[in-house]
UniProtKB/TrEMBL annotation:
Residues 178-306 form the PpiC domain. It comes from Paenibacillus aurantiacus. Gene3D superfamilies: 3.10.50.40. Its EC number is 5.2.1.8. Keywords: Isomerase, Rotamase, Signal. InterPro entries: PPIase_dom_sf (IPR046357), PPIase_PpiC (IPR000297), PrsA_foldase (IPR050245), Trigger_fact/SurA_dom_sf (IPR027304). It catalyses: [protein]-peptidylproline (omega=180) = [protein]-peptidylproline (omega=0). This is peptidylprolyl isomerase. Pfam families: Rotamase_2. GO terms for molecular function: isomerase activity.
C-alpha cells in the first residue's frame, strides 16, 4: 500500500519524513499485528475497530468534497486520485497511533489499563454482565445498562486520559502559579467577564394590528424620529405608543437569552443613549434605547482557578501528546495492512450505520459537535464516569 501515508496527521507525516523519525514499513514483529507503536502491538481487531470509528467521517468527507454517492462500490472508487478505503486506513492508523502512545505512557507511569484489544473486549463483556446483574438486583448504576463496544472503548480511553492528565500533572506537566495567573489575565475578557448591568427602553410594534409592511415602516419611522430627538421615549410619546423598560443582568441573563435573544444581543452592544436598528422579534418589530450601563466586572481568579487548571491541563496534555506522537517509534506491517479490504469496513452500530434506504443516495450533512463544553458539565462527566 505504497500510496498510504502513515502518520498521526498530515503535518506530522511531513515532519517525520524530513527529520527521519521513521516508520519501518516492513519490520513489524508480528504478522498478526497491523503495526507496532512504541513497542505495543496494534492487533487487526483493534485496527478494524478504529476503521469503524472513522467510517462515517470518511463517508461524509467524500460526500462533501467530491459529491460521492455511498453504495456497494464506494470504498474502492477513486476520487481525484484518492480512494475512501486508503483514506479510512490512514485515519484509522492516526487513531491507533494516538491511542498506543497514550497507553505506552500509562504503562510507564504504572497506570492499570488494558493494552491488548482482546483484554479490552473481555473487560467490556464483563462490565456489561456486571451491569445487568446490578439492575436485576435493584442496585444503582451510572450510565447505560449495557455499553456498545465502541461506547465502552471511548469510555475507557476517556478514563485513561483523565488518569494520564492527573499523573502527568504531578510530573512533567505540572502547572505553575504564574501560568494560572497569566491565563486568567489573558483570557478574562473572553471567559471570566461578568454580564454588564444594562437597562433599555423598548417599543414593540406588533404585526397583529397591521400588515407586516406597515408595521416595519412604522418602526423605521419611529427609529428615525428617536435618532433626531435623541430620545426613544419622546418619539414614542409623540405617537402615544407604550414604552417599556427592561433590565439585563447576570441574574436574568438565562431567561433573557432564551426568550429575548435578539433584544439581548443588541443590549450587549448598545452604548448609553444609542438607538438600535429595527429588530425583528417574534411578535413584530422592536426599537431599543440604552439608558444605563454598569460594568459587571470579572469573576475573581480564586473562584475560577480550578476551571483554569482544567483548561490549562487540557492544552498542555494535547501539546505533550502531539509531540509524543511525532517522536513515536512506529512500524507498519505492510502485508497485513494490505489484506484489510472494503469487506472489513464494518458499521459501528445500527444507529450510526447507513440505512439501506439511503444506499446509493448522497449522505445528509452532519453538524459538528460543540468543541468546547461548559466546565461544570465536563467536571460532572469526569466524576460520573469515575463512578461507573
Amino acid at each position: 500500500m505504497n500510496k498510504l501515508a502513515v502518520a498521526a496527521g498530515t503535518a506530522c507525516l511531513l515532519a517525520i519524513m524530513v527529520i527521519g523519525i521513521g516508520f519501518d514499513r516492513g519490520n513489524a514483529t508480528s504478522a498478526a499485528s497491523i503495526a507496532v507503536v512504541n513497542g505495543l502491538d496494534v492487533a487487526e481487531m483493534e485496527f478494524k475497530a478504529a476503521m469503524a470509528q472513522e467510517r462515517i467521517t470518511v463517508i461524509q468527507a467524500f460526500q462533501s468534497k467530491h459529491g460521492a454517492v455511498y453504495g456497494d462500490a464506494f470504498w474502492q472508487q477513486t476520487f481525484d486520485g484518492e480512494t475512501p478505503l486508503d483514506v479510512l486506513k490512514q485515519r484509522a492508523l492516526d487513531r491507533v497511533i494516538r491511542i498506543k502512545v497514550q497507553q505506552a505512557e500509562a504503562l510507564r507511569l504504572g497506570i492499570d489499563t488494558p493494552i491488548e484489544y482482546g483484554q479490552f473486549v473481555t473487560q467490556w463483556k464483563q462490565e456489561n454482565e456486571r451491569r445487568k446483574a446490578a439492575v436485576q438486583a435493584d442496585e444503582v448504576i451510572y450510565g447505560p445498562i449495557e455499553f456498545s463496544e465502541d461506547d465502552y472503548y471511548r469510555h475507557m480511553m476517556s478514563n485513561l486520559a483523565i488518569e494520564l492528565k492527573d499523573a502527568l500533572g504531578a510530573d512533567k506537566l505540572s502547572l505553575q502559579a504564574s501560568e494560572i495567573e497569566s491565563f486568567y489575565h489573558t483570557n478574562r475578557d473572553a471567559h471570566f467577564k461578568k454580564t454588564d448591568r444594562v437597562t433599555i427602553r423598548k417599543v414593540v410594534l406588533p404585526i397583529s394590528h397591521s400588515s407586516q409592511e406597515t408595521a416595519r415602516e412604522a418602526a423605521e419611522a419611529l427609529r428615525a424620529d428617536a435618532e433626531q430627538r435623541g430620545s426613544l421615549a419622546e418619539a414614542a410619546a409623540a405617537r402615544n405608543w407604550i414604552v417599556e423598560e427592561q433590565r439585563f443582568d447576570e441574574a436574568a441573563e438565562r431567561n433573557n437569552r432564551k426568550y429575548f435573544a435578539d433584544i439581548t444581543e443588541w443590549a450587549d452592544t448598545l452604548a448609553v443613549g444609542e438607538i438600535s436598528d429595527v429588530i425583528v422579534v417574534p411578535d413584530g418589530y422592536a426599537v431599543l434605547e440604552c439608558i444605563a450601563r454598569e460594568e459587571g466586572g470579572y469573576v475573581p481568579q480564586d473562584e475560577v482557578e480550578e476551571e483554569i487548571r482544567f483548561r490549562l491541563m487540557d492544552l498542555k496534555y494535547e501539546e505533550w501528546l502531539a509531540a509524543a506522537i511525532r517522536d513515536a517509534a512506529v512500524s507498519i506491517h505492510e502485508d497485513a495492512l494490505a489484506r484489510i479490504g472494503a469487506d472489513k469496513v464494518r458499521e459501528r452500530n445500527a444507529s450510526e450505520g447507513i440505512p439501506r434506504n439511503l444506499r446509493g443516495m448522497p449522505l445528509p450533512a452532519y453538524g459538528m459537535q460543540e468543541a468546547r463544553r461548559d466546565f461544570t458539565q465536563r467536571q460532572g462527566e469526569r466524576e460520573r464516569w469515575r463512578c461507573i
